[in-house]
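Q: How do we represent a protein-ligand complex in a form that can be generated token by token?
A: Start from the inputs.
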Amino acid sequence: MVDNPFQTPEAQILRTHQAEIVSQHLRDLLTDPSRPRSMTLTAGPLTVDFSRMLGNTTTLELLGSLADALRVPERLKAMVSGEVVNVTEQRAALHTALRADHDAHITVDGADVMPDVTQTADAVSAYVEAVRSGARRGATGERLTDVVVIGIGGSDLGPRMVTAATRSHHTGHVGVHFVANVDPAELDTTLAPLDPASTLVVIISKTFTTVETLANAATARTWLVDSVGETGLTNHVCAVTTAVEAATAFGVPEDAVFGFRDWVGGRYSLSSAVGIGIEFAVGPEGMRSLRQGMRWVDDALLADPWQPNAAVLLGMLDIWYTEYFGATTKAVIPYSQDLALLPSHLQQLQMESNGKSVTADGRPVAWPTSPIVWGAPGTNGQHAFFQLLHQGTTLVPVDLIGVDSIAGSDRANLLQANLLAQAAALALGRTATDLRAAGVSEALIPHKEMPGDRPSTLIWLPDLSPSSVGALVALYEHATAVAGFAWGINPFDQWGVERGKELAGDLLPAVAGGAIPDDTDASTEASLRHLRGS
Ligand code: F6P
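Then emit the structure tokens for the protein with 6-O-phosphono-beta-D-fructofuranose bound:
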């Protein structure tokens, strides 16, 4: 582990390189017809176009060299081999095993994990198929027409996003609904139009201790029991967790509890049984296809001989823009309404992984780590925050996501035209000369000038099939780990979220009307009194 990744010779060479290229404007660089081809890579079915980045092919090579110097390839190899890479929890981070070839052999603690991975995936598929086909029915004999998936964080965001993204590839007739927030509004409005007799409730919680999930699960359980009784409950509940006993104690029948191992991190878990909601929507075949798409990207990660690939470079761009250009945020703009939830998933994936300020061995970092990840679908964002992207005082690197198959109509063409126009406007800007030539009045020129040189990465999916969406998820999973490894932090733990959970438990009695603890801070006490109307 290096003391400071940015004091390595490779980082210094990048610094010198940056000084050499910083004066080159994208509007000049993009006159080179060879640039797009030389700066576009593939990742499974994806095309990743880096040609609008700040820099050039040398930059990409130097970022690859920095990754190499920071032992990123070794860390990636350790990760996919099942070594303990999550050092504070003494766990592996083996999400790649979830979509590995079933004849692969990957060991954790001396045991091959693949038989268990395969058995669980097959059991989930058999269960999903039984429900979708009507072979497995509700207590009254009715088909289960709706599945309500209750979970939060990694037990919700990824599966919810992929289910929405693959809308055009849903098969069967089961409606899949996701509930995460403990605000009664979400579960109550979801259950209101449903019939308990034809509804399956799926509880997803790695720990089976997350209070929001357990509170929602308890409410849903009552809703079911009020209709089908305690004896009928077992036909209407399913669980995905590492805490199998807790799930069976809740009333879930053993053949409907699907486990996964503690080396699957929540935000990296959608290719595990946690993705059961996806599978109810796209079917077992679709789920296999999702995992295949992920595997294609996994396989490119450590090609031999190793060379920087799209996932590695995407992760290293976070380093490039945060460390060398001072960017503090990154926008993700999918030009696809079906991918509208991608930014939310990436917020957890990247900010819960890399929003850290100590290295994996506990030393304070002296460099910036994860940028703030945010975004919204295009073209909507153009009417919300693109003004800042074009003329604001803050450099915001943008990941643009395009989908080839969105075509065949005027509206689709309009979407794609806007995608390309925004990428161009960000890069090229608009000079005073351009504006004068267009007859813009002198008074307006300073207001209409656009600096340009605003970088973007354009990631193309061929379509929104499970395999393409899976590849996109894996691309970002690996980019996240790469950035974390390069920053020298542990991308797989999340100690920062624990304290809030504890405080919520401490405050719950007071919120419910009980005594306000003496050691309550003044603002919390005032807020509690506000809630009490006093
Ligand atoms: O946000 C904290 C966290 O632990 C996430 O890492 C996790 O995905 C989420 O809560 C839900 O945890 P569980 O799956 O154990 O309910």
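Residues 152-155, 205-207, 210, 213, 266-267, 352, 494, 497 surround 6-O-phosphono-beta-D-fructofuranose (CB under 6 Å). The chain has a mean pLDDT of 97.
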